[in-house]
Each structure stands twice: as structure tokens, then as C-alpha cells.
Amino acid sequence: SLQPLRAKPIPKSLRASQRKPREPGVASSLIKKIFSHYAKIKVARDALKIVEKCTERYFKQLSNDLEAYSKHAGRKTVEMADMEVLLRRQGLVTDKMPMHVLIERNLPLEYRKLLIPIAESGNKVIPRK
Amino acid sequence: GGEAGMKRTAPRATLRRIIRKHKPELRLAANADLLVRRGRGGAGAESVHLSFLLFLHRLAEEARTNAFEDKSKIIKPEHTIAAAKVIKHFEYL
């Protein structure tokens, strides 16, 4: 379970040498950057360790869910529809917050260009401005 | 909006590697595939990145609210843990 980490701070000189061979994971520096950006206030280092732990669990659960959805549809490849089901279940995509709006608000332009035609094609109503 | 200043480039190879670690059989569509098959649409690592960003967004907002309620100017581990528990009903923690 999640507990505050009360580990002694490791001296900077030792930190690099204690690095283990890396499991695939999002870089701590990126997690820190994104989380701090959204948090808008200072984040304690121990709190960031918790965020990293949460991130690992998040991806584990995400993988399980995406597998379940695509399997259910008889596929081995994750499609946008699976992703949309996932975001809907998380309460992020709703009738008032369609997939393409989420994409527009949160992803850089080069990804939006890739995703939006697809996200929109899944919707029955495409608001055009 | 209002995201200026933060680079939001997805670590796409990493995201694919993470999913492959958990589910070696599961495939995420490639970009090329994504463009060709517009009608059906494959979900690439970008959409995984999107859900990840939104997850951190929610966790951060929740943790900040906890810090405010605690009259703390800094997010502490306990604020983050409480935040993680609140979003438990998404079955992500």
C-alpha cells in the first residue's frame, strides 16, 4: 500500500551509482515536470516518489484494461475505440467532453493532427466551427 | 489551453515498452497505420500519453486541493496518497 517514504536522503554523489538496470518506465524527470506543471505549487520530493509509484500502477491497470477491451472485440491491436472506452470509464470522456476536445486541449499540435480525424470519426455528432 | 511552457512530447517508445512489459501480446497501432486506416483508427502511443497526462492532471489537482485544505504551501506525500485514494474508483490505484 502507499505509505509516505521516510528514507534518508541519499547524498548526491552516491545517487548515480545506485541506479539499477532500468525497467521500462516513464522518466522520473518527465513525471516530475508534468505533475509539477499541473500542481502549480511546490511538490516535496517524497511526494514525487509516490506519484512515480502511482504511475507504475496506472500503466499496469491501463495495460490490463486495454487488453480486456480489445480482446472483447476479438482483436490483438488496441484501437481508438478501446482508448475511448477507457477514458469514458475514467470519467474523462463524457457527452459534454468528447474525445477530440480532450485531445485538442491536452496534446501538442503534431499529435492532434494524427488523432483528431480518428477521434471525430467515432462520434455521431461532429461540431464544426 | 494555458499549457504554454510545458513541452508535452510523448515518450512514445517508452510508452510502448511499458505496455509490452505488461502485455507482450498486445499491439498498439503505429502512426502510419493510424493515418491509413482513418475509418477504424488504431490507437497509438499518443493516445496512451493523453490518458497518462490526464491521470497526472487529476492526481495533481486532487493533491493540491488536499494541500490547501491542510493549509500547506507544498504538496506532501500524504496529500498525494490521499489524492490517489480518491481516484481509486477509477480502479487505477
Automatic annotation (TrEMBL), chain A:
Q: Which GO terms describe its molecular function?
A: DNA binding; protein heterodimerization activity
Name a single GO biological process: chromosome segregation
Question: GO cellular component terms?
Answer: kinetochore; nucleus
InterPro entries linked: CENP-T, CENP-T/H4_C, Histone-fold
Location in or out of the cell = Chromosome; Nucleus
Q: Does the keyword Ligase apply?
A: no
Q: What keywords would UniProt list here?
A: Chromosome, Nucleus
Q: Does the keyword Nucleus apply?
A: yes
> Main localisation, per the record?
nucleus
Which part of the chain is the CENP-T/Histone H4 histone fold domain? 30-119
Enumerate the residue ranges of region (Disordered): 1-25
Q: Which family does it belong to?
A: Belongs to the CENP-T/CNN1 family.
| Protein's UniProt name | CENPT protein
What is the species of this protein? Centropus bengalensis (lesser coucal)
The gene designation is Cenpt_0
From TrEMBL, chain B:
Q: Which UniProt keywords apply?
A: Centromere, Chromosome, Kinetochore, Nucleus
Q: Does the keyword Nucleus apply?
A: yes
Among the record's GO biological process terms, what is one? chromosome segregation
- Record's family? Belongs to the CENP-W/WIP1 family.
The gene for this chain is: Cenpw
Entry-linked Pfam families: CENP-W
| PANTHER family to which the protein is assigned, alphabetical | CENTROMERE PROTEIN W
Q: Tell me where on the tree of life, at the top rank, the source sits.
A: Eukaryota
Q: A Gene Ontology MF term for this entry?
A: DNA binding
Q: What is this protein called?
A: CENPW protein
UniProt subcellular location: Chromosome, Centromere, Kinetochore; Nucleus
Q: Spell out the InterPro entries in the cross-references.
A: CENP-W (IPR028847), CENP-W/WIP1 (IPR052484), Histone-fold (IPR009072)
A single GO CC term for this protein reads: nucleoplasm
Q: Which organism is it from?
A: Centropus bengalensis
